[in-house]
Amino acid sequence: MNIRVVIVDDQPLVRAGFRMVLGSQPDIEVVGEAGDGAEALRLLARTPADVVVMDIRMPVLDGVEATRRLCATGPDAPKVLVLTTFDTDADAFAALQAGASGFLLKNVPPEELLSAIKVVAAGESVVAPRITRRLLDRFADQLVPPTGTVDDQGLAALTEREREVLLLVGQGLSNAEIGQRLFVAETTVKTHVGRILTKLDLRDRVQIVVLAYERGLIRPAPSP
């Protein structure tokens, strides 16, 4: 099946460039585009999509708030891949906490953009967990505890091993590194991560890291 993509950017030339790149792929279909976050939400309410390529700084409604509202619609919401010209930790942090599954700069090579869209569509993230943790260490005091997304009962549903894996994911370890730490196969770790995502109704590994901070399971690294 084709990956259905919606492009959201306030610059028509940028949207045209993305459409040209994505349209060259036989397994990607651009099903719509919008010039701001509000227009994007209206479009997505009537247009099924798998991935939204979202700019951050736009008029009317910015990409961070649009991402937050879109992800709040439920587990079937499209995955959001944020692209921006602003290489700042604050932008990345805001986008990830809003629910984005990836964060890239607009000047990435076309092949990297295409790969990121496919990775995000498959339910993975394109932000390294260590980068996520660096951002959370820096902005932990700005975290807003979730309201009912994952309660203590949800965490209690995890097995002891799943809780171990959650904490290690929260520390930024890859599946291979977690496997080495716990003396289990990498495929076993992947299975545990999948079960954690299902039990806690999370979208990807990035959300596991954010959750670990929000619930106080991981403490920010001390400032140097």
From TrEMBL:
<feature type="domain" description="Response regulatory">
    <location>
        <begin position="4"/>
        <end position="121"/>
    </location>
</feature>
<keyword id="KW-0238">DNA-binding</keyword>
<dbReference type="InterPro" id="IPR058245">
    <property type="entry name" value="NreC/VraR/RcsB-like_REC"/>
</dbReference>
<feature type="domain" description="HTH luxR-type">
    <location>
        <begin position="151"/>
        <end position="216"/>
    </location>
</feature>
<feature type="modified residue" description="4-aspartylphosphate">
    <location>
        <position position="55"/>
    </location>
</feature>
<protein>
    <submittedName>
        <fullName>Response regulator</fullName>
    </submittedName>
</protein>
<dbReference type="Pfam" id="PF00196">
    <property type="entry name" value="GerE"/>
</dbReference>
<dbReference type="Pfam" id="PF00072">
    <property type="entry name" value="Response_reg"/>
</dbReference>
<dbReference type="InterPro" id="IPR000792">
    <property type="entry name" value="Tscrpt_reg_LuxR_C"/>
</dbReference>
<keyword id="KW-0805">Transcription regulation</keyword>
<dbReference type="InterPro" id="IPR001789">
    <property type="entry name" value="Sig_transdc_resp-reg_receiver"/>
</dbReference>
<dbReference type="InterPro" id="IPR016032">
    <property type="entry name" value="Sig_transdc_resp-reg_C-effctor"/>
</dbReference>
<dbReference type="InterPro" id="IPR011006">
    <property type="entry name" value="CheY-like_superfamily"/>
</dbReference>
<keyword id="KW-0597">Phosphoprotein</keyword>
<keyword id="KW-0804">Transcription</keyword>
<dbReference type="InterPro" id="IPR039420">
    <property type="entry name" value="WalR-like"/>
</dbReference>
